[in-house]
C-alpha cells in the first residue's frame, strides 16, 4: 500500500484553518454596530419597593376608567332621521334637558289630525246635547196633541150620542104628519156624520200617541231620566277616545325629542344630523353621558387571585405609559358575580377562558390626566391565603 501524500495530510487542514480564521475576522470587522433603543414606554413596575422583592405580596390587574355608576348609553325612543343635535361634547346637561330631536314632521301631522278629530267629536257631542231641549219640547207637544185628540174624541162621541138621541125621538113619533120623513133622514145622516167624526178623532188619537212614542224614543236616546242617553254616552265615549288618541300622538311627538335622564356630562357623540337613528342600542348609544361624581376604575381580578383579594386592602393605580404615577384608589363596590374575562392584557400566558371578579374603585377627584376608557395597571395588596373574601 502506497504512502499518503504529505500535501493531503497537512495541506488541507491548514487551508481549512486559515479559511476559518479569515472568515471569523471578516465577520467581526463587518458586524453592524447599533445603538441601544429605548422602549416605547417604561415597563410596569411594582407599586412599592417592598413588592419588588416578592410579587406574591400584591395582585396585579388591569382596570379601565369609566364614569361613576357606568356610562349611560342614550338611545332614541323612535327610529328616524336626526333633525337636530342640541348638545355638544363636554356639555353639562340637566335632567330633562333635550339632547337631540328626530324628524317630527309625520308626528306633527298626526297630532294635528287627531286634534281635528277631537274637535269633531266634541262638536257632535255638543250638537246632541243641544237636541235635548227640542226633544223635550216635541214630547210635550205630542202629549198635548194626544190630549187634544182625546178631547176631540170625547166631543165627537157626545155629538154621536146627541144625534142618535134626536133620531130616536124622531123615529118614536107615530103620527107621520107630526114630523116629515126628510127630517128623519136628515137626523139619520147627522148620526152617521157624527160617528165618522168620532172615528176620525179616534184615529187622530192613535196618530198622536204614535208621535208621542216617537218623540219619547228620540228623547230617551239623548236623556234617560237624570242620566245621559245612549247617543250622548256614545258621543262622550268618542270624545274620550279621540282625546286618548290625541294624547298618544302628542306622546309620540314628545318621544321624538331625546332628553337627558339625569344631570351629566356628554362624553361621546356617535350620531350626526341627517343620519338615521335606530330605536335600539347595541352597546353604543347615540350619545354617551357620564353621571356626576368621581371617576371609577373597573378592575378585573383573575379567578386564581380571588382567594387573595380582600375589600379592605390598599389599591394603587398607574396609567399605562406613566408607571411612575401612583394613584391611591378607594373601593366603591364589588360585583359579586364572576364573569368571563373580556379585557385581555396580551400576555402569552393568559388563558382566554379565564373568569374574573369585577371590582370598582373610585379615583380621587384631584387626580389629573385620567380620561374615560383609559387602561390602568392596578395593584392590590394581597391577603394571606385563607383570609380573602
Architecture overview:
The chain is an alpha+beta fold. Among the domains are: 49-68 and 293-381, Elongation Factor Tu (Ef-tu), domain 3, CATH 2.40.30.170; 118-246, Helix Hairpins, CATH 1.10.287. Helix content is 42%, strand content 21%. It has six helices and 17 strands. It has helices at residues 6-30, 49-53, 105-130, 132-172, 181-222, 230-255; strands at residues 58-66, 72-74, 80-85, 92-93, 98-102, 223-224, 227-228, 257-259, 264-269, 276-277, 287-291, 296-302, 315-319, 327-334, 339-340, 355-362, 375-381. The strands form four sheets. It has a six-stranded antiparallel beta barrel with strand order 1-12-16-14-13-17. The model is unreliable at 40-44 (pLDDT under 50).
As residue ranges, the low-confidence spans are: 40-44
Note the beta-strand portion: 15-25%
Question: What letter string, H or E per element, gives the SSE order?
Answer: HHEEEEEHHHEEHEEEEEEEEEE
Name of the CATH architecture of the domain at 118-246: Orthogonal Bundle
Structural class: alpha+beta
Number of strands: 17
Amino acid at each position: 500500500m502506497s504512502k499518503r501524500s504529505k500535501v493531503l495530510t497537512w495541506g488541507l487542514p491548514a487551508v481549512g484553518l486559515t479559511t476559518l480564521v479569515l472568515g471569523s475576522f471578516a465577520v467581526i470587522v463587518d458586524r453592524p454596530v447599533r445603538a441601544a433603543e429605548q422602549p416605547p414606554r417604561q415597563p410596569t413596575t411594582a407599586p412599592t419597593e417592598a413588592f419588588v422583592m416578592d410579587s406574591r405580596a400584591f395582585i396585579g390587574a388591569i382596570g379601565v376608567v369609566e364614569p361613576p355608576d357606568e356610562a349611560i348609553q342614550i338611545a332614541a325612543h323612535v327610529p328616524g332621521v336626526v333633525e337636530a343635535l342640541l348638545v355638544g361634547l363636554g356639555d353639562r346637561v340637566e335632567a330633562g334637558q333635550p339632547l337631540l330631536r328626530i324628524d317630527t314632521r309625520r308626528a306633527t301631522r298626526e297630532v294635528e289630525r287627531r286634534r281635528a278629530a277631537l274637535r269633531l267629536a266634541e262638536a257632535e257631542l255638543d250638537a246632541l246635547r243641544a237636541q235635548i231641549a227640542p226633544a223635550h219640547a216635541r214630547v210635550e207637544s205630542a202629549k198635548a196633541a194626544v190630549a187634544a185628540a182625546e178631547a176631540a174624541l170625547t166631543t165627537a162621541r157626545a155629538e154621536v150620542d146627541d144625534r142618535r138621541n134626536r133620531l130616536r125621538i124622531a123615529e118614536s113619533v107615530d103620527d107621520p104628519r107630526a114630523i116629515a120623513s126628510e127630517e128623519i133622514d136628515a137626523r139619520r145622516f147627522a148620526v152617521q156624520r157624527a160617528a165618522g167624526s168620532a172615528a176620525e178623532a179616534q184615529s187622530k188619537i192613535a196618530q198622536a200617541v204614535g208621535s208621542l212614542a216617537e218623540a219619547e224614543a228620540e228623547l230617551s236616546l239623548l236623556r234617560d231620566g237624570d242620566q245621559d242617553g245612549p247617543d250622548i254616552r256614545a258621543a262622550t265615549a268618542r270624545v274620550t277616545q279621540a282625546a286618548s288618541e290625541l294624547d298618544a300622538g302628542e306622546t309620540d311627538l314628545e318621544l321624538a325629542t331625546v332628553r337627558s335622564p339625569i344631570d351629566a356630562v356628554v362624553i361621546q357623540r356617535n350620531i350626526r344630523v341627517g343620519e338615521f337613528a335606530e330605536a335600539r342600542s347595541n352597546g353604543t348609544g347615540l350619545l354617551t353621558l357620564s353621571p356626576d361624581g368621581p371617576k371609577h376604575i373597573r378592575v378585573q381580578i383573575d379567578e386564581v387571585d380571588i382567594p387573595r383579594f380582600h375589600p379592605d386592602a390598599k389599591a394603587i393605580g398607574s396609567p399605562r405609559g406613566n408607571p411612575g404615577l401612583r394613584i391611591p384608589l378607594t373601593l366603591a363596590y364589588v360585583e359579586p358575580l364572576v364573569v368571563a374575562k373580556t379585557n385581555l392584557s396580551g400576555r402569552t400566558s393568559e388563558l382566554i377562558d379565564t373568569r374574573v371578579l369585577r371590582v370598582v374603585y373610585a379615583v380621587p377627584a384631584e387626580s389629573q390626566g385620567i380620561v374615560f376608557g383609559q387602561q390602568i395597571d392596578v395593584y392590590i395588596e394581597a391577603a394571606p391565603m385563607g383570609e380573602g373574601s
